[in-house]
Amino acid sequence: MNYKILLSHEAIAYLHTLDGRTRNVLARKIESLKESPDKKGKSLSGDLSKYRSIHAAGRYRILYELKAAEVIVFIVAVGIRKEGSKIDVYETMKRLIRLKILD
After folding, report:
1. Are 3 and 33 in contact (CB under 8 A)?
2. CB pairs under 8 A, 24+ apart, for 52-61?
3. Number of neighbouring beta carbons within 10 Å of residue 79
4. For 20-52, what is the HEC assignment?
5. I need a surface site. Which of 3, 64, 88, 99 has the fewest CB within 10 A?
6. Phi–psi pair at 70, nearest 5 degrees
7. 6-56: per-residue pLDDT in tens?
């Protein structure tokens, strides 16, 4: 069964800031989530426990929510994993959740 891919406004905006090569690598990885997204990436914990994360293009991560009942993969964020930094994709996600932008 193929899942439908939806991207958040934040994910789309971030992808548009990237160079073409990186954007293409990330797009292929996102496209791969159409099949068996529950078997790809890893489940996150804590505040991000309803999301999954998959590695793509070096330090880049794709964070997504699997909505199995609706057969949808919702890409909530794309960004760089840089532990301890304000631009770390996981820290950005936590801020968005605290601000109730994502829930």
Report:
1. yes
2. 53/90, 54/29, 56/25, 56/26, 56/29, 56/30, 57/22, 57/25, 57/26, 57/29, 60/22, 60/25, 60/26, 61/89, 61/90
3. 20
4. HHHHHHHHHHHHHCCECHHHCCEECCHHHCCCE
5. 99
6. -100, -5
7. 999 989 999 999 999 999 999 999 999 999 999 999 999 998 999 999 999
Residue type, 27: A
Residues paired with residue 65 on neighbouring β-strands, in sequence order:
74
How many CA atoms are closer than 13 Å to the CA of 53, on its beta-carbon side? 17
Return the domain boundaries, the chain.
4-98
The answer to whether domain 4-98 has CATH 3.40.50.360 is no
Paired with 55 in beta bridges are 61
- The pTM assigned to this predicted structure is 0.88
Residue 102 reports pLDDT greater than 70: no
